[in-house]
């Protein structure tokens, strides 16, 4: 299934077998990740800013504050590339040339538009929160009207999108397999540690299950 | 110490206390990370590509293959923004507005130039390998002349650089501290799992210490 039609700009040319254009693969990567890198250009100079994101169907919501200066000048939106990368492991090959990394990434191109209505902004903030901290939204104080006004959110329609995935062991030159050195994959994953309770939490309140059992992988 | 002079483009305006401009902070982040996001623009459209990197002094080396089409057309180099981000934890505040993330990031602006000489290319590949896989270079087969020719490497001088760091507990509105909910930080770190030995490694060869004791944090 290739429900995201590859374009001249998203089609992978080098190593085309790593390219994926189906929403199932794309959404699985987006839903496991929570940090994206937003690229935009000002007078030819690109900027790449890390930020958290949320997804509602085929819409990506990103915090717009980092780009706020630019947004004020561009009523018709700003051309962006939003990239999400999950690192899955280091691939130790037998030659320097074939060392690699297992990863999954998604590249999204389009025009990011500021979210104007308070209703959509609230929906986006809920999407952010539930994307990064599933279970948290219902417990916390929702944004006030003033906070909503002070929050800058961008909407990017997911239309021109591709995923890139590398998995598996090293692929070495045939003659190098005889070398008597270790080769293989060292898996890597973003892993939670023990929660640190804020000093001002009232006594007797413990971290909830959505914190102690935090996991990015949906089961 | 601010040995990277802040510029109009790298000076943090929002939350200026999170900004750092000293090489010690910058290099510590760069040396712990190994994935960067490279941003460049083609006819106004930005692209953001994840790749590994190496550092030699005040020079960043990145794989150039992702940008090879562009490089062929630009003899005088390409304006890039290279961003490196380490995620340290999720900050659970008492209100949606104050949820945050603990992170350390470095933003590097400049002109990336193709490395032409075989000597510098070899030095860069060694820097990549030892940056991502410290201890590996001396054991593996070094690149052949043909592999060196087929490898595209870019050099970015580290001149216009800033770091951004958020640490510590949530900062809530004073009146929200009375809420009877948990708040605090969930630490996150990229953590190695058990090494997966490639099927074709000869019997009796075990993963070396630089794999089994892999750690990004220098002690």
Walkthrough of the structure:
The structure is a homodimer of 219-residue chains. Helix content of chain A is 18%, strand content 37%. A six-stranded antiparallel β-barrel of chain A has the order 2-3-4-7-6-5. Chain A has five helices and ten strands. The longest helix of chain A has 15 residues, at 118-132. Chain A has one domain (16-173, 183-191): Electron Transport, Fmn-binding Protein, Chain A (Pnp Oxidase, Chain A). The first copy, chain A, starts with 18 loop residues before the first strand and ends in a 7-residue tail after the last helix. At the A-B interface, strand 2, strand 3, strand 5, strand 6 and helix 3 of A face strand 2, strand 3, strand 5, strand 6 and helix 3 of B. Strand 9 of chain A pairs antiparallel with strand 9 of chain B, so a sheet runs across the interface.
Characteristic terms for this protein:
alpha+beta, Pnp Oxidase, Chain A, homodimer, 6-stranded antiparallel barrel, globular, 5 helices
Q: Class by helix and strand content of chain A?
A: alpha+beta
Number of domains of chain A: 1
Question: Roughly what is the average pLDDT of chain A, rounded to an integer?
Answer: 91
| Separation of the first and last Cα atoms of chain A | 23 Å
Assembly state here? homodimer
Radius of gyration of chain A: 21 Å
- Secondary-structure element pattern of chain A, one letter each: EHEEEHEEHHEEEEH
CATH topology of chain A, by name, is Pnp Oxidase, Chain A
How much helix, percentage-wise, in residues of chain A? 10-25%
Main CATH class of chain A: Mainly Beta
- Proportion in β-strands of chain A: 35-45%
Q: Estimate the global geometry of chain A from the Cα principal axes.
A: globular
Q: Pick out the low-confidence regions of chain A.
A: none
- The CATH level-2 architecture of chain A is identified as Roll
